[in-house]
Design a protein that fits this description.
The chain is of the alpha+beta class and 573 residues long. Among the domains are: 115 residues, no CATH class; 140 residues, no CATH class; 100 residues, no CATH class. The protein has 19 helices and 13 strands. Helix 6 crosses helix 7, helix 7 packs antiparallel against helix 17 and helix 17 crosses helix 19. The chain is extended, with a radius of gyration of 36 Å. The termini are far apart. 29% of the residues are buried.
Length: 573
């Protein structure tokens, strides 16, 4: 047959013959009962993976290990080659398993096969050296989970979407009854406090929880045009394009809209000044303004934050006599310790504070001082000096460079906010002259009612999905909330979910990016006790009021992830 089949091998055996020889060899090894067998390794060394997992054969013999179980069992394995080379260098150690210590060494975790553990005593490995020999591309890092906190930082940015996920269902948010919806709206209008237990066993059958959820969904807006999405306004031309806008063609209609908007804007500011409104937003097609009442964000005066700004807007504000500062520029200058010209007693420069008196004279004096050293050296006639126009253009270029960036955020305090109110009412550039938003007044957003406002509610949707965990599937529940989500709403939702989801949930927050810089720190001037006592009638819940009274900690960032575990918060920004 060998002549007919060139590839035939006389040593070829049928599979049945191989199985018979395997069973015979297993029985012989079991009958000898030598000092060590592969099946005894897991019993002798705790925590060690057996050669081949699985039940033993019914014949009483030990099942042979599968050579294809892992790459570490192959002949070409670098771990096995290292172990064999070490064993060859130590011919005296004929029974290395007899020298294993009772307590396994910490280095045992570094070995991935039985041979490595057996030859551990003969490998003089230093723990520090073992750490150094690891791959530099994958450094050893110890990831410690933060312990969490009872509260999270105040986030003054506007959110467009919140996505809550939890292992407990959100069915308590679906299909509110007419009585529950009406009661929730009434509670919001009366600014009734929310008192819920720490843990609600059956949230779906808790009417107080469902009413409080409806209460937290409410916000107030002006103008309200149902066929137009009036938030966000920056970059919304595509969403508004093609929609009916009769005010862009009719001047009389445009004047009516703007006059009503001015009345609503003035009403909001008066409520803010009287501390009946905690804060509100003015959203234009180019920038957003946040007005905060005295007592919030660590300030005892009314503050207004404008972002993003341009050099033209800042110059127009200066010409109206509005004093402002650039907090991010000031912070950078303090970090770099760069001396500024024209410093004022409060630490701001003429350019940053918005004062425009003697601007050209200061430029000329700076130029003369900067070239005074040329006269001392006697070479002032040999070097061409830049003229005043060149110096002015260079400074303007530096100012224009930060336009539309977070560094261009403007902070206005005290009585200057009232001047800003008049400036925005009379400023024609806050309304687009062309395009889909032409003639459309800015959007006013507030947590409380004001003149001409329309009550709106955030949109909600709950979804139940299954996620794969190890070898099975686990139910995962999610709640999506979309719309202009104000800072107080985020904190109220977290309080509700803390009780309804048994102190365990995670949140993904989607920020309206131009407003992320509203978290820029403002220098504190008063204590929290005085702040909380003055704003008790502003319409916010006491825990939420205390939350928004704290100092800004996020800088130009905003919250991206918020997680609660065991009633403790962790977050990422």
């Amino acid at each position: 047959m060998s002549d007919l089949l060139p590839g035939y091998s006389p040593s070829f055996k049928k599979p049945s013959e191989i199985l018979r020889l395997s069973r015979k060899r297993s029985r012989s090894e079991a009958s000898r009962g030598g000092p060590f067998s592969p099946g005894d390794a897991p019993k002798r060394i705790p925590g060690l993976r057996p050669f081949s997992p699985g039940p033993q054969r019914s014949g009483g013999g030990v099942k042979r290990r599968n050579p294809f179980a892992s790459l570490e069992n192959t002949v070409c394995s670098p771990v096995k080659r290292r172990a064999e080379s070490v064993y060859d260098c130590n011919p005296v150690a004929t029974e290395p398993w007899a020298k294993l210590p009772e307590n396994p060494s910490p280095l045992t975790a570094q070995f991935s096969s039985v041979e490595d553990v057996l030859f551990e005593d003969h490998l003089d490995v230093d723990p520090a050296a073992a750490t150094k020999t690891q791959s530099p591309e994958k450094p050893v890092t110890v990831c410690e989970r933060p312990q969490g906190a009872v509260n999270f930082p105040a986030d003054w940015s506007l959110k467009t979407r919140l996505l809550f996920t939890s292992s407990h269902p959100f069915s308590w948010t679906d299909h509110l009854k007419a009585q529950e919806e009406a009661q929730g709206l009434a509670l919001h209008s009366r600014a009734a406090p929310i008192n819920l237990p720490q843990n609600i066993l059956d949230p779906k059958s808790c009417p107080e929880l469902r009413c409080a959820f409806q209460q937290c969904l409410v916000y107030w807006q002006h103008p309200s045009l149902p066929w137009l999405q009036l938030f966000p306004r920056i970059g919304a031309d595509r969403k508004i394009a093609g929609k009916n806008s009769p005010w862009s063609q009719d001047d009389a209609l445009h004047q009516v809209l703007m006059s009503e908007w001015a009345l609503s804007f003035t009403s909001l500011y008066n409520l803010l000044k009287a501390k009946f409104c905690p804060y509100f937003y003015v959203c234009t097609y180019q920038f957003t303004v946040l007005f905060r009442a005295a007592g919030l964000a660590g300030s005892d005066v009314i503050t207004a934050v404008v972002s993003p700004t341009t050099r033209g807007l800042r110059e127009a504000m200066k010409s109206e006599g509005i004093e402002f500062s650039l907090p991010m520029v000031e912070n950078d200058n303090k970090k770099q310790n760069v001396p500024e010209t024209g410093d004022q007693p409060d630490g701001t420069t003429d350019q940053e504070s918005g004062t425009h008196s003697g601007g050209e004279e200061s430029c000329d004096s700076d130029a003369e001082e900067s070239f005074a050293w040329l006269e001392e050296m006697g070479v002032e006639n040999q070097i061409k000096k830049p003229d005043a126009i060149s110096i002015k253009l260079r400074k303007e270029k530096r100012e224009v460079k930060m336009d539309h960036k977070p560094e261009s955020v403007v902070l206005i305090k005290g009585s200057n906010t009232f001047t800003l109110l008049n400036f925005l009412i009379n400023c024609k550039s806050i309304v687009a002259a062309a395009g889909p938003q032409a003639g459309l007044p800015p959007t006013l957003l507030s947590p409380i009612a004001f003149r001409g406002a329309t009550m709106q509610t955030l949109k909600t949707r709950s979804i139940n999905v299954k996620t794969q965990v190890n070898s099975g599937y686990k139910d995962l529940f999610s709640l999506e909330i979309s719309g202009p989500i104000l800072p107080h709403s985020l904190h109220c939702f977290s309080l509700l979910l803390k009780s309804a989801q048994r102190g365990s949930f995670s949140t993904s927050l989607y920020t309206h990016e131009p407003t992320a810089v509203f978290n820029t720190a403002i220098h504190p001037q008063t204590t929290k006790e005085n702040i909380s006592s003055d704003l008790t009638s502003c319409g916010l819940q006491p825990p939420t009021l205390e939350h928004l009274s704290q100092l800004c900690q996020l800088g130009k960032n905003s919250l991206r992830q918020l997680e609660m575990s065991d009633y403790k918060y962790t977050w990422k920004s």
